[in-house]
Amino acid sequence: MPLPAQACSGIVLRTPESILADDIRQTALAQLGFTDLATSVHAERGQDRQGAWVRLWLDQATAQAWAPGLDTLQLASTLQLNTLNCDADLMREIVVAMLMGPIPFEFPSLDELVSAVRIRRNIVQAARKTTLAFDTAAAERPEGYWTYDKATGFTILPGVSLIEALTRATQPDVSGSLYSFSCYRATEYVTLLGIAQELAHSNPSLFNQLQKQWTQRAIMSGEFHEVFLREQGSMDQPLPPSYYVPGDRTWFRNPDEASANASGFEGSWVMYLGGGLFTNFWKRNHPYTLTSKCVEIYHWRHGLYRDEQGEHRIDEAHIEPMIEATLSNPSELTRIMALMTRYREPRGVYTEAGGGIDTTREFARWVRPGTADLQLPTE
Question: Which of 145, 219, 245, 316 is the most exposed place for a label (fewest CB within 10 A)?
Fold first, then answer.
């Protein structure tokens, strides 16, 4: 039986064929700490060209009751989870959302699944503490921890802990200062911090390689995506527009071509925090909902102007009253959300049909010794 690709495909583990599927189910739920889910989680065994696998998935009736139409934005509320103050509740939201994944989350071992859940938890916890100064042209990092070179980017100084350097660069409660970032680079730092924390725990050798890497050259942008992240979904097989797992990185696109030409306003990179909330790195105590993020991006078009150098800019102060007015006007809000919650079009394509929702989500690669597919550059 090949890997399933259907509603509620869930989690797929590569395990020895000699182990019963039900034993894998019980062991997995026990290691994750959620044995109470056993009556709602199914298991089946199959085989493909890569070998034996066991699929775990949430009962469809339960999934429909907890997240109708695979809309996970209300999952924490439905399950009455206190994900902000309870670590176990945050991990429960992660696991339950993964168990109803429409495209399988595949892992080469149960250990990799456990690490993946912990990385997502780490990312959410770090993202909640992150506050930055938005700037697409300038960038700065804490002195005594970072240095900059055009050829290598921001690297850490010898003897500095990568985890501490990332924390100080992104969390003003620790550093006492705000540092300038673009939203894209901010998601890289938060993701890298979550991965580094798990590597220090479960794969010290790879963590040491990562630490060394950042003393020599930063990994950024497209290379960061290739090295550290896997992507689920595609333009041909999009994820449901309201399906998110805490710890996901995703992109909201600005579907207005004119305002998208303003630097930094092509769209917005965010992390999903769970509980229906997305990161607001500039005002961490005011995270976005899907609605508020879509409405903000829609109104960027109304703040477009040219500066003295002739460059396109967005006057965010000018559009703040428009955003508030839309959020208070049910009919206008319905109209704008109908436009913005369409799937985005391919990069470079702008028509009336395009919306702001990405078809994919990004999350960390495997990290455990012997199965890690996170491979750092050799040069």
Answer: 316
DSSP helix/strand/coil, 51: strand
Q: 153 near 220, Cβ under 8 Å? A: yes
Nearest to 93 by CA among 104, 107, 82: 82
- Taking the C-alpha atoms of residue 83 and residue 86, their distance in angstroms, rounded to an integer, is 5
54, 21 in Cβ contact below 8 A? yes
Distance CA 357, CA 249 (A): 13
Helix (H) or strand (E) holding 190: helix 183-202
pTM of the model: 0.95
> pLDDT in tens for each of the 379 residues of the chain?
555 555 459 999 999 888 999 999 999 999 999 999 999 999 999 988 888 999 999 999 999 999 999 999 999 999 999 999 999 999 999 999 999 999 999 999 999 999 999 999 999 999 999 999 876 666 789 999 999 999 999 999 999 999 999 999 999 999 999 898 888 889 999 999 999 999 999 999 999 999 999 999 999 999 999 999 999 999 999 999 999 999 999 999 999 999 999 988 999 999 999 999 999 998 989 999 999 999 999 999 999 999 988 899 999 999 999 999 999 999 999 999 999 999 999 988 999 889 999 999 999 999 999 999 999 998 6
CA distance 113 to 95: 10
Alpha-carbon torsion angle 342, 345, 350, 351, nearest 10: -50
